[in-house]
């Protein structure tokens, strides 16, 4: 059996705890807290302890879904983005820019959150931007 510990950072929130991924025979098997990491000093919350589980989950979304007649259908990124852009345009034209909003995530970087805010304010024309930490 081949066992390896791969250092990484928890992606569940902005705290940025250090973790060690347990990789056994090239399969991700577990998550351990990194004792030498200055942020968490060997501690993890329950989300961090289970960080590895979503990576191999069969429920994980790996491509966009489009709702059609009440069912979710897999599609490509180009088509999903085109549909979202068209629907934003239709809603904004009919109800105004404050009728739409953007929800961002703790699982993306500060820079990506900043870009989402710019998309909301400069492109869509709305100040309705929020973050999952407040939901
Ligand atoms: S272990 Fe918990 S507190 Fe630390 S980064 Fe992950 S979610 Fe945040």
Question: How many H/I helical runs?
Answer: 3
Strand content: 25-35%
Radius of gyration: 19 Å
> Which series of helices and strands comes N to C?
EEEHEEHEHE
Cα separation of the termini: 43 Å
Instruction: Return residue spans where pLDDT drops below 50 for at least 5 consecutive residues.
Output: none
- Report strand order across the widest sheet: 1-2-3
Q: State mean pLDDT (0 to 100 scale).
A: 92
Instruction: Please summarize the sheet with the most strands.
Output: 3 strands, antiparallel
Total count of strands: 7
Number of domains: 2
Listed once per kind, the bound small molecules are: iron/sulfur cluster
Decide which structural class fits the backbone: alpha+beta
What gross morphology would you assign? flat
Share in helix: 25-40%
List key phrases describing it.
single chain, about 140 residues, alpha+beta, N-terminal domain of TfIIb, three-stranded antiparallel β-sheet, two-stranded antiparallel ribbon, 3 helices, 7 strands, about 30% helix, flat, binds iron/sulfur cluster
Could you describe the 3D structure shown?
This protein has 135 residues and is of the alpha+beta class. The chain has 2 domains: 52 residues, N-terminal domain of TfIIb (Single Sheet), CATH 2.20.25.90; 70 residues, no CATH class. Helices cover 28% and strands 26% of the residues. The protein has 3 helices and 7 strands. The model has no long low-confidence stretch (mean pLDDT 92). Bound molecules: iron/sulfur cluster (SF4). Iron/sulfur cluster binds next to helix 1.
What's the quick description here?
The chain has 135 residues and is of the alpha+beta class. The chain has 3 helices and 7 strands. A 3-stranded antiparallel β-sheet has the order 1-2-3, with no helix packed on it. It has a two-stranded antiparallel ribbon with strand order 4-5.
